[in-house]
Amino acid sequence: MMEHLPALMIAVPLFGAFTTPLLKKRYSLASMWAIIITAATLGLSLLLVQEVLSKGIIVYVFGAKNPSLVLPSGYRVPVRIIFEIDAIGAFMALSATLMSFIGALYSYSHVRMESGLEKYYALLLLLEVGILGMVLTGDLFNLFVFLEIAGIAGSALVGFRNYRGEASEAGIKYLIVSAVASLMVLFSIGLLYGQYGNLNIAYLSTQIHFDTVDMIALGLLFVSFAMKCGSVPMHYWVPDAYTEVPAGINPTLLVATYASLYALFRVSFSLFGAITWNMARVGWIMSILGVLTMFIGVTMALVQKDVKRLMSYHAISQTGYMLLGVGVGLTVLNDPAKLSAFGRTAMAGGIFHIINHIIYKSLLLMTAGALFYVTGTRNLNEMGGLARRMPYTTIAFIVGAAAISGIPPFNGFASKFLIYETSYQLNPLLAVIAMVTSVLTLASFVKVFASAFLGPPLEKYNEVREVPKPMVAAMIILAVLCILFGLFPNVVLKNLIYPAVDALLKLAQYQSWGGLA
Q: Is residue 336 within 8 Å of residue 321, measured between CB atoms?
């Protein structure tokens, strides 16, 4: 089994996606089946992380070592799919499987009254397949294929509640953005294939000489993945999508967003990283986009009355921290002294913030889903006094709000602190903007807490009770992770984050393993 672990990472959720519709008439079976499949995939991802950390890079070829198709003309076409899995790919796979499991658990009760749930769970598993393919593949075209799978499944889930006009609109918007981004990725793939006759990332990184065509390809890839990860000024789809998608899908949709961020980092370091003198400029662009994204996102959140839309704008804002952290590392890529002094640590902060944000933002969006579940509204002006009725949801919200605001000892502080101190060494203004953003984030969530949970209970909510146990369990798991990652950040940094950072920085190692292509 260990030999075929990468294949099982795709095969298990794909099998689950195609078998779930067979359970159409039994809701409980469909939901339990999804929980079992996502739990099994989570177990496989833990084994994969262990294998990668012990062996380095895993290269898995679907098929024989040198299979080929001979056309009538005599031309031999290689027929194979190659996965090249290093520490950052394994890190993202673990994030995807963990959040898919949490989402399936939460959904058991949250969407129980909806119709078409066999499609809901099939799409959830298909979205997981798309994410896993994106982060495990070593080939640009397969990256495009899995990007398309994730985009189609994601758009269907965003528009799942099609009896709401807003959900249908958000689903169409997500689909259009995904299609445009995928088209740009496909066009850049065509340019690179026309130049070098190969699409293996490791091989291409040894051949690229950064001429005009390569620069166009980099620009298209950068813009498309920045669009899909919700960076300003291409963030317009995020509030609609995150607001309208069922709260049980929010965790997996978040990881889908950051799978595109992973692709942006992979392109910047593993594909074009050998051109260090030019990538330093790209690093500055990434850093500036980061501070713009974090500041514009948080200012837009301050004026929102819809609790889930407010949190969606914060998701945009937090993406800026990730762009800033990794952007600082990319900026000093051609300066070994600065890279050693603060660049590597900055990248660790940015990548650590990915998993931290996925955890606490999923928690916060689930608390928003819980509020909607019991009140039937997302309007903060129509809520109040719910802390007495929903104690577990209240505790979960407090933990998530403290984490996203960067308050110790929660996980958000651990990653933000690394970003503050390293971005300051590059340019103090970057750190100042990042810290101001955290202050505004705290102010925003104080408003939410006061509006929804404090004050005397409203008469119309006298019969409100805590949400069902599966929803509570999902929120408690994430709240505990927020605390554990904040109390023991060095454990996470040592075993997950720094290996992921080094996987991006050690280009020669990635290229040598890609020689199998």
A: no
Q: Which two tokens stand for residue 46?
A: 């833990």
373 token code pair = 């579940």
The dihedral built from the CA positions of residue 204, 207, 213 and 214, taken in this order, carries a sign that is positive
Q: Max alpha carbon distance in the chain (Å)? A: 80
Contact 425, 384 (CB under 8 A): no
Q: Report pTM.
A: 0.93
| CA 440 from centre of chain | 23
Rounded distance between C-alpha atoms, residue 290 and residue 49, angstroms: 29
Write out pLDDT tens, residues 392-421.
999 999 999 999 999 999 999 999 999 999
Three-class secondary structure of residue 458 per DSSP:
coil
Joined tokens for residue 151: 């985009």
Q: Which tokens go with 488?
A: 């023991």
- What are the sequence ranges of the domains in the chain? 1-274, 289-517
In the three-class reduction of DSSP (H, G, I as helix; E, B as strand; rest coil), residue 58 is classed as strand
Give, as one character, the DSSP assignment of residue 466.
P
- E strands in 17-140: 58-62, 68-70, 76-78, 81-85
Residue 444 in contact with residue 298, Cβ under 8 Å? yes
Residue 132 near residue 10 (C-beta atoms within 8 A): yes
Strands 58-62 and 81-85: antiparallel
CA distance 359 to 353: 10
Mean pLDDT of 276-286: 84
184 vs 137, 180, 205, 213, CA distance in Å?
A: 19, 6, 20, 14
The CA distance from 347 to 351, in Å, is: 6
In this structure, what token pair is assigned to residue 126?
């298909």
- pLDDT per residue over 159-210, tens digit each? 999 888 899 999 999 999 999 999 999 999 999 999 998 888 988 888 888 8
Which pair of structure tokens corresponds to residue 58? 């895993």
Judge whether 475 and 367 are in contact, CB under 8 Å.
yes
Structure tokens at 109: 């009760």
Handedness of CA 22, 170, 163, 358 (dihedral sign): positive
Q: Please name the amino acid found at residue 166.
A: E
Residue-wise over 138-156: b if at least 16 C-beta within 10 A, else e? bbbbbbbbbbbbbbbbbbb
Closest CA to 119 of 74, 89, 55, 162: 162
With DSSP H G I counted as helix, E B as strand and the rest as coil, what are the percentages for the chain, rounded to 5? 75, 5, 20
Q: Phi then psi for 68, rounded to 5 degrees?
A: -155, 155
Can you tell me the distance from the alpha carbon of 112 to that of 368, in angstroms, rounded to the nearest whole number? 17
Distance of CA 162 to the CA centre of its chain: 25
